Amino acid sequence: ALRDAFLADPEVAFDMARPEQVVLEAEPFGVTARERKNWVGLNEDQQRELVIRAVRFLVLGGTRAMPLARGKFIEALRAPARVTAAALALAQQEVGHVFGLSVNSGRLFGPAGPLSSDKLFVSSALKCQVHQQIIGAASSTAAQRGFAFAVFACIWTAAGRRLRVRELVHKLRELDPRFPATIMMCSGRVEPEVPELGMDLVRLLKHLEKQGYITTTSDDAAKTDFLRSEAMLGPRFFIEVGRRQLVKAFFNASGKPVDQELLREISREPLVQSADDEAD
Asked: Which of 89, 234, 258, 271 could be 29's S-S partner, Cβ–Cβ 3.0 to 4.6 Å?
């Protein structure tokens, strides 16, 4: 049923236009008593200038939909390290109130442990369903969203919620024969391309990885062979998409009513897994 739905209309089979909540609510960044004291030691003009720089970095960087390195944030602030935490906490509040943006740290956990803990993820915090429907209807990237949801579904249903990239390619091929059955990598080029998506399959997957929607781990042998690495759901997936929305899209694509017990089970799962959980 999933395959039939994706083949029938890949632009709506995994549509993100009607989410119940678009973005995970950001947890406020913490500031220690010492960091707060250092911040109070600055005069008002210094504080204002640092917050402006921090907000500018988050807003401009967030428009690219790429993870922002904390090191780059510190460089942009051009201030002593002792006041950067307070500036980030205040900027997080400001971009939320003024620009409707949510700023999260990448300290989310996946099957392999902590991911991108030194990264900041900026997302639109808009939750109005009507507005999202308008965006979805007018978007020219619906096919890319459909592809992303297909990737998410393949990883989510895999054992341990992790999947070798080569096996992921095969599963995508099962969903839609327009995906290549095999991938040839030579002279730095990957062929063939997927016409509807504008680039080849490996570049599509690496783009999802670069944005933080998926993450990959690899052993020494896989460092030179991307297809041998393992793919997992990344921090931005949990921030912008979420497990409930993925499950609902899965059932909508199959034409079946959503399993409410499964949704309740998901709600009981911790978003952040401890090392002990992973060991079990």
From this structure: 89
